[in-house]
Hints:
The protein is mainly α. The protein has one domain. Helices cover 76% and strands 0% of the residues. The chain is built from four helices and no strands. It has helices at residues 10-28, 33-62, 68-93, 99-122. The chain is elongated and about 50 Å long. The two termini are 17 Å apart.
Amino acid sequence: MKNPVPWFDLPTACAGALIMGGLVGWVNIGHGLLPALSAALKQGVYTFFVAGLVVQLCRWLAAREVSLVVAASMAVLLPTILTVMLVFTLHSVKGTPEPLKSTIPVVVMSLISFSFFTWRGLKGEPGDLDL
C-alpha cells in the first residue's frame, strides 16, 4: 500500500510511540504513576511525530549515491544523534524524573531501528519515499 504522506512513515510512528512510551513509563514508574504516565505520554507523542519523519530521513540518507560506508554511516548515525539529543532535551526541560535513564532506551532502539531501515534502503527497498 502506498504511503499517503511520502515524508511521514505512519506505521513506524505508531509502533515507535507505543514501544518507546511504554519503556519510558516503565523506567519512571518508581516515581509514582502520575510522573511515569506523564513521561510515557511525552515520549509517545514525541516519538510518533519525530519517528515518522526521522525514519524517512534515514531512508533518504541510505539511498544517496555515495559510497556504501558513507551512506550507511550517515543513515544510522545522523538520525540517532538527532533523536537522542531531542529526547534528552525534552525529558530534561519537561521535568521527567529520570531524563538520562529515559534516554538510554532511545539510544538502543534508535541504533537498532535506523540500522534496519538503512539495511532495507541499501537493499533497494527505500519504502514510499519519493521526494
